[in-house]
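R.M. (postdoc): so does anyone remember the format we settled on? I'll just put the C-alpha cells first.
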C-alpha cells in the first residue's frame, strides 16, 4: 500500500564539509522544524532518520531529545553499544541490507540478538537482553524496535548516484536493483511510521502485520550467523567448538571414546587453567579450557571485522587420551591446521543458501598453513593466530603448544594447545570479506 498519510520531508543541510556532526545536528533539526511549521505542517509527529554515520548521530540526538521525536530510523546504521535498544526513550527502526560492506551484517546481528544491557549488581555484570526474548515477552518490541535485514541490498542503495570513494571501495555488489532497494526501504519506513503514530490510526494494524513478517524474514536471514556465533559466544560460558575440536585432535581411533566439556575464561586467566581428563564408564571425559580474543573496537566501528580474532583452546593430546584408556592406539598426528580446515568446512555447510552461492561465484578462498610450534606455554599465550587478508584470500596460520606425555621440560605433560580460527570469523569471511575483491561496487564500476 502507498503511504495513506501526508508526509512532510525536510533534508538537513549546511553541515561543515557537508558531513553531519552532533554539534550542528541540534541546530539543523530546530531549523527544519521551524521551516516545516512555516510551510503549514500542523502536527508534531516528527521522525528523524540518518544513514550510516549520520544514523549514529541520530541515535545520540534521540537519546538527548526524546520529547521532540516520535521515533528514529537508522538506515544502514545502529545504536552504538552504550545505548540499550530496549531502554531507548523513543521507538527506533534499524534497517540494513545483508550485502552491506560497511555496516556489516555481523554488527546488525549483535543489535538483533542483544540490546547490550549492562546491569550493575554487586560489581559489573554483563547480562545481555535478547531481542528475541523481548519479542516473546512483549510483542510490541517487533514494532517499537524492529531490526530488519533486507536480502540483496548493500550500503550505497540507501542513496543514489556516484558513491563516495570509501563506499565504492568497501561496499559489496548488490543482488537487487536500486529501484527495488528503494521500494523496500520506502515500504519499511512507511510501516514503522504508521505502526508508531499515536491513536487513532486506522493503518497501524496492517503496518504491524508487515513488521511482524519482516521480523520473521530477518530471523531466517541471520539464523545461520546466530547459530555459528553461539558456538563460542553464549550465556553458558563454554566454547562448543573447543569441545568439538578436542574430539578432532583425539583422532578417528579415539573420538568415539571422548566426551569433552569446555569452560571459557578470560584471556587474563587462561594461563592458570589446564585441561584435565578422567576415565568414565564409556571412555574418557576431557575438561578443556578456552578464551575468545575479541577485536578491540572502542568506537564501535562496523566497517572492520566484528567476530573473534581467535580461540585460545587448551586440549589434551591424542597420546595422553590413548594412554589413559590403555587399550587403544592414538591415531595420527592431527594439528591445529586440521581443526581449522574442519571449522571452515563446517561453517560452509551451515551457511545460508544465498551466502553460499555468492561465495562460490565470487568469493576468495581461505588458505591454511602448517602450525608454528611454540615450546613454552607463556610464549604460546602471547602469540596470536595469523589472519592475513590480501587480494588472494585469507591466509590462516595457527600457533601450537604440544607437550610429550612423559616429561615436563616444556610444560605440563600431554597437552595440545591451539590458536584456532573462530567459526564465526570464518562465516564472516564467507558473508562479507571474501567478496570485497571480486564483488565490490568498485570492481563492478571499473
Amino acid at each position: 500500500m502507498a503511504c495513506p498519510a501526508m508526509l512532510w520531508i525536510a533534508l538537513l543541510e549546511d553541515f561543515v564539509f557537508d558531513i553531519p556532526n552532533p554539534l550542528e545536528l541540534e541546530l539543523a533539526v530546530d531549523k527544519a522544524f521551524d521551516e516545516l511549521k512555516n510551510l503549514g505542517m500542523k502536527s508534531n509527529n516528527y521522525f528523524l532518520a540518518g544513514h550510516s554515520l549520520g544514523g549514529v548521530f541520530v541515535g545520540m540526538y534521540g537519546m538527548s531529545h526524546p520529547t521532540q521525536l516520535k521515533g528514529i530510523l537508522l538506515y544502514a546504521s545502529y545504536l552504538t553499544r552504550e545505548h540499550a535498544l530496549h531502554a531507548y526513550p523513543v521507538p527506533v527502526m534499524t534497517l540494513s541490507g545483508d550485502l552491506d560492506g560497511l555496516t556489516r551484517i555481523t554488527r546488525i546481528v549483535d543489535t538483533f540478538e542483544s540490546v547490550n544491557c549492562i546491569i550493575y549488581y554487586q560489581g559489573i555484570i554483563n547480562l545481555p537482553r535478547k531481542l528475541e526474548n523481548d519479542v516473546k515477552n512483549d510483542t510490541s518490541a517487533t514494532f517499537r524496535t524492529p531490526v530488519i535485514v533486507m536480502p540483496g541490498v548493500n550500503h550505497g542503495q540507501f542513496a543514489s548516484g556516484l558513491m563516495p570513494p570509501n563506499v565504492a571501495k568497501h561496499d559489496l555488489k548488490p543482488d537487487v536493483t536500486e529501484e527495488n532497494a528503494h521500494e523496500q526501504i520506502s515500504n519499511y519506513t512507511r510501516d514503522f511510521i504508521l505502526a508508531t503514530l499515536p491513536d487513532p490510526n486506522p493503518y497501524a494494524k496492517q503496518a504491524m502485520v508487515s513488521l511482524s513478517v519482516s521480523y520473521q524474514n530477518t530471523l531466517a536471514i541471520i539464523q545461520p550467523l546466530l547459530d555459528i556465533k553461539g558456538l563460542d559466544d553464549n550465556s553458558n560460558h563454554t566454547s562448543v567448538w573447543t569441545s568439538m575440536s578436542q574430539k578432532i585432535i583425539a583422532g578417528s581411533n579415539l573420538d568415539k571414546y571422548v566426551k569433552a566439556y569446555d569452560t571459557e575464561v578470560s584471556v587474563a586467566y587462561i594461563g592458570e587453567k589446564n585441561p584435565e581428563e578422567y576415565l568414565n564408564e564409556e571412555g574418557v571425559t576431557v575438561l578443556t579450557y578456552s578464551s575468545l580474543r575479541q577485536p578491540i573496537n572502542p568506537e564501535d566501528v562496523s566497517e572492520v571485522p566484528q567476530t573473534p580474532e581467535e580461540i585460545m583452546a587448551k586440549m589434551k593430546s591424542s597420546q595422553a587420551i590413548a594412554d589413559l584408556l590403555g587399550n587403544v592406539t592414538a591415531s595420527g598426528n592431527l594439528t591445529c591446521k586440521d581443526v581449522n580446515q574442519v571449522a571452515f568446512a563446517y561453517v560452509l555447510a551451515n551457511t545460508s543458501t544465498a551466502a553460499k552461492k555468492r561465495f562460490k561465484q565470487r568469493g576468495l578462498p581461505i588458505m591454511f598453513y602448517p602450525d608454528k610450534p611454540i615450546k613454552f606455554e607463556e610464549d604460546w599465550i602471547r602469540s596470536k593466530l595469523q589472519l592475513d587478508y590480501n587480494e588472494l584470500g585469507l591466509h590462516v596460520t595457527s600457533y601450537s603448544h604440544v607437550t610429550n606425555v612423559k616429561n615436563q621440560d616444556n610444560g605440563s605433560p600431554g597437552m595440545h594447545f591451539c590458536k584456532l580460527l573462530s567459526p564465526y570469523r570464518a562465516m564472516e569471511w564467507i558473508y562479507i570479506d571474501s567478496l570485497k575483491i571480486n564483488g565490490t561496487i568498485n570492481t563492478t564500476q571499473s
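R.M.: ...and that's the designed sequence above, right after the C-alpha cells. Also worth knowing: Residues 204-229 form the longest helix (26 residues). Confidence is low (pLDDT under 50) at residues 115-129.
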